[in-house]
Amino acid sequence: MVRIVLALGLFLGLWAAAGGYGIGLPLTDEQLASYEALPIVRPSGAGLPEGEGDPATGFEIYAFDCAGCHGPNGEGAPFDRLVADAPFSLDLPPHRFAVGNYWPYATTLWDYINRAMPFASPHNMDPDEVYALVAYLLAENGIIDADTVVNAETLARIRMPARPLYRVDPLTRQLFPWIELP
Amino acid sequence: MNRRSFLQGLAAALAAGSLQLVRAQQGFKPFPPAPTLGTPLQPIGVRAASEAHVVRYISNTLPSRHTGAAFAPIGELDGIITPNGLHFERDHAGVPTIDPKDYRLVLHGLVERPLMFTLDDLMRLPSENQVYFIECAGNGQNGYREPPEPTLTATRSRGLVSGAEWTGVPLRILLEEAGVKPEGRWLLAEGADAAAWVRSIPTEKGLRDVLVAYKQNGEALRPEQGYPVRLVVPGWEGSIQVKWLRRILVAGEPAMSRGETSEYTDVRADGRIDAFTWVMEPQSIITRPSGGQRIEPGFHQIRGLAWSGFGMVARVEVSTDGGASWREARLTGPVLPYALTRFVFDWNWGGEETVLMSRMVDDQGNVQPTRAEFLERWARNNRYHYNAIQAWRVGADGRVQNGDPALAVGAAPPVQAGGCGGEVFDG
Fold it and tell me: Where are the alpha helices (DSSP H) in B355-423?
């Protein structure tokens, strides 16, 4: 008993010294698992789970879950156009911005579909389904071939057509000179 | 003076005098006290029933009201604090219903001690109160339309901004509790809405002045403002001020989430696309008189709002002659950094057609641009950060309309506003 009290006292003492207020519950990796299950994916591929998918499989899912909002082949209406019908230019109206002409990272597609799509029943797909949808959209946009399989390793390596157009806002660059785009 | 002109003058004076008399008789209406007891004490106050028309504006062309925006009715408000129910709203997947007993905020990633905070934990920690504006990056989007939209109102021009006093725990305290590792230069903040909205914030900014807010003008946040907890990131675009905050992942690189790539990035006139356009540039708008209103000749106090994401409002100037001359307006009420500021300007309107404008300068010397200056820097197909001077044309009949100048013939072809889901605020 004394040992437990001493250990607890030591723990609280260390805790207070470390944090300051000793408020907030320390978490274990196991407890964080449910958060990792909805990963925040980064351009390096960090956060991407295991799995893979190809465009043909993706089209089957797309036709069922996505076409109602984004058009039979990603042409948009009533919601955003996903498949570009022209390269980016200053004359391109915003409703024609799409994956193939405006999105700078392929990893964003996986992240956003996984966390926010379909609109009314999001974050319910398994990783393979998300990879397949990403593969379908990349293929429709002419970024990969129709038979290319997409997985964590290949997704991070895909160079998007719009990426060279992007830069860090010059003002932000002044305020935070260390910031670079991935 | 001859006899004839004297008589004419006398007749005119009499006519004017009798007109005033007639007007006085017509306008006279006694206002007696209530004949009996009024409404008894109520546990919560509600607006006067006759004020029910003062509501947020929602475009009727949105494909879904679960994404899109509701504009604060700035054309009908005064002061620098927006009433909580009228604060502008922008959602990406509707407003979640969150039981405060279930609420948890997790801080993990590149930290010494991953931590989970309850709402009570956050409220126990040291708090700060700050008056800040929050402005959607899409505010002013209607200004990109060409030719300018004649029926524009102040609300539809710049109503995606609001001001409030926010109470919360400085994010710095939470970051220090968790102990951010040196390589943890980015905070990836995630909301608990259906879109699990994610934005990346430099840890440097998080340590400087970001609030983890749980109160708005003294009461709990409204659900549409992030109940129970949101980030307030002073001076920066609204979409980075993550609502319904559920976790912060400390990372070595930004997420480049959808909200910082396909949306909320800005096209420059040279064709480059800028990412991380965070700071909201200097803005001002005359809210009274403004589009859709009607005025009579005589005295008017021109009123408006000014603000800047760079800091404090230094000066607002008003022109009542279409920009030919400018005079300094008076700032009334608190002038605070990253807060809405109210300006007023006394004006006698003689009844002739004219154009009213305001422009502001902030304490860092940034000047609000004209429409032409603005469109020299930003592409015509850009969607965000429109902060050009708004002009209001007062017609001879007293009707006020959008007075923005159309671009010269031969300028880039008009960009069609709207057309796609989440990015159309006002179709």
Answer: 371-377
Which residue does chain B place closest to A119, by CA atoms? B93
DSSP of B252-312: SS----GGGTTSS-EEBTTS-EEE---BPPPEEEEEES-TT-B--SEEEEEEEEEE-TTS-
Q: Which residues of chain A have pLDDT under 50?
A: 13, 15-17
How does residue B60 score in pLDDT terms, banded at 50, 70 and 90?
confident
Under 8 Å between Cβ of B166 and B232: yes
Q: How far, in Å, CA of B398 to CA of B318, rounded? A: 19
Q: Tell me how many residue pairs between chain A and chain B have CB atoms under 8 A apart.
A: 196
Mutate to test the interface with B, among A14, A15, A25 (most CBs of B within 10 A): A25
**Per-residue model confidence (pLDDT) at position B18:** 58
Return the CATH number of the domain spanning residue range B68-271: 3.90.420.10
> A30, exposed or middle or buried, with CB in 10 Å at 0-12, 13-18, 19+?
exposed
Which of A:49-108 have CB within 8 Å of B?
69, 76, 78-81, 88-97, 99, 102-105, 107-108
Min CA distance, B76 vs chain A (Å)?
31
Listed by start position, the domains of chain A span 34-167
In the predicted model, is pLDDT for residue B423 greater than 80?
no
CATH number attached to the domain at B283-402? 2.60.40.650
Given CA atoms B236, B239, B245, B247 in this order, what sign does their dihedral have? negative
- B23 CB burial (10 A radius; 0-12, 13-18, 19+): exposed
Helix (H, G, I), strand (E, B) or coil at B147: coil
Q: How far out from the chain centre does Cα B204 lie? A: 26
**What backbone torsions phi and psi does residue B259 show, to the nearest 5 degrees?**
-70, -5
Phi, psi for B73 (deg, rounded to 5): -80, 65
Decide if A176 touches B, using CB distance below 8 A: yes
pLDDT at B138 over 90: yes
The rounded distance, in Å, linking the Cα atoms of A99 and A122 is 20
On the question of a cis peptide bond just before residue A78, with omega within 30 degrees of 0, the verdict is yes
Burial class (CB in 10 A: 0-12, 13-18, 19+), B350: exposed
CA pair distance B231, B213, nearest whole angstrom: 6
CA distance A76 to chain B (A): 7
Quick one: pLDDT at residue B56?
97
CB B240 within 8 A of CB B233: yes
pLDDT bracket for residue B146 (50, 70, 90): confident
* Contacts with A, B 111-170, CB within 8 Å: 112-117, 121, 124-125
C-alpha dist (Å) from residue B363 to B20, B137, B313: 47, 21, 6
In this predicted structure, the answer to whether residue B1 has a pLDDT above a threshold of 60 is no
Give the one of B202, B273, B423 whose C-beta lies nearest to A176's C-beta: B202
> A116: which chain B residues are within 8 Å (Cβ-Cβ)?
92-93, 194-197, 258
Closest by CA position to B330, among listed B341, B347, B344:
B344
CATH of domain A34-167: 1.10.760.10
Average pLDDT taken over every residue of chain B: 92
Give the whole-angstrom CA distance, residue B196 versus residue B359.
38
Helices and strands counted in chain A (H then E): 9, 4
